[in-house]
Amino acid sequence: MNYFVLGYYALLIGTSCAAAYYGRRGAFMTLFSLTLISFVVGIVGGESALWTITLCAGTLALSAGTAYAFREFLVNIAGKETAKTLRTAPLTASFGMFVIFTYAVMGIFAPMIAPYGEAEVIASAFAPADENMLLGADQLGRDMLSRIVYGARNTVGLALAATLLAFFMGAFAGLFAATKGGNLDQAMGRVADVIMSIPSLIFALLLLSIFGTNLIVLVIIVAIIYAPRVFRLTRAVAGNVVVMDYIEAARLRGEGDLYLIRKEILPNSTAPLIAEFGLEFCFVFLLIAGLSFLGLGIQPPTADWGSMVRENATLISFGEMTPLIPAGAIALLTVAVNFVVDWMLWRSAGIKE
Asked: Which pLDDT tens digit goes with each residue over 152-166?
């Protein structure tokens, strides 16, 4: 008799009945649906499949509990208005904020967290994991865990810098074009259309092959590629604001363009722009990781998640999942940012409607 299987189904059925008895319809539907799925999967895959479901369900439960606790922590330390807003955040957004917070701490305090130096060789090539190297060594004998920690600072930091520059350029240009209008608006729009018509990866590869792979050059090139996206959105949002009566009243008072942008248009356009910033960061982050994977992004010996996947890809042929860890770090941050952005878009009244 398999006590695990009996205990597994007894726990699911018991919790389902308890949820139904106390009127928790959502919890009942979730638990009983999991029971039915487990019944079918258990017949096909046996006990190992049930262990997989248990592990996945446990991971989801742990993630949900962490997200809930982190949301309550933020509510307790935030101001009254901010706390009221945070209470409306779903668990997905709370989980996204927790992941972003974790990455920020890991990047800021990388030298204190990482057990070894960023480029310090401490073992032979592809040395297996042990008590000193929890994830083993890379192709040069450097500690993988340390390089992943430093990669949070380098990859995420570079993506954040490029996103800030792209957002500043695109948002200012969009606000200025909406305020001025006329031929200048049309000309700036056509320039943005031309840049957006070129595939971002091809455009980046072309410019990097011309100007080199210096970090400053990389930030500027990525910012130029994605600034037109911010320009288009900012121009569309600001275009709905500049036709308002209070804008016309400010013009009649003799206010200049910079005053209109700073005091009238920008404060009424922040909600979609903040959400766009999160989306832009995801695009920039993935582009920089992709360029590093191709060898034209952050250059060795600087730790970078994209290049780490390329450098250690041969381990996959031997059944080692170590190269998937930096790839998973890239995917996790992208999903987390999207969770937060989705919540911010939902809260934006205009977009929500």
From this structure: 888 888 999 999 999
The alpha helices in 242-304, defined as continuous H runs, are: 245-252, 257-259, 270-294
Q: Which long-range contacts (CB under 8 A, 24 or more apart) does 199-202 make?
A: 200/225, 200/226, 200/283, 200/287, 201/287, 201/290, 201/291
Residue 96 C-alpha from the chain's centroid: 8
Kindly state the average pLDDT of the residues 323-332. Answer: 87
- When pLDDT is averaged across residues 273-298 and rounded to a whole number, the result is 86
Distance CA 348, CA 277 (A): 14
Predicted local confidence at residue 224, as pLDDT = 92
CA–CA separation, 36 and 121 (whole Å): 51
Euclidean distance between CA atoms 154 and 329, whole angstroms: 13
Percent of the residues in the chain that have a pLDDT greater than 90, as a whole number = 12
| Alpha-carbon Rg for the chain in angstroms | 25
Structural tokens at position 306:
């994209």
Residue in 63, 72, 69 with CA at minimum distance from that of residue 92: 63
Distance CA 322, CA 136 (A): 8
Phi (first) and psi of residue 255, to 5 degrees: -70, 145
Q: What are the φ/ψ torsions at residue 143 (nearest 5 degrees)?
A: -70, 125
Using CA atoms, how far apart are residues 303 and 287, in angstroms rounded to an integer? 16
Beta bridge partners of 142: 121
Q: What angle do CA 308, 312, 317 make, to 5 degrees?
A: 145
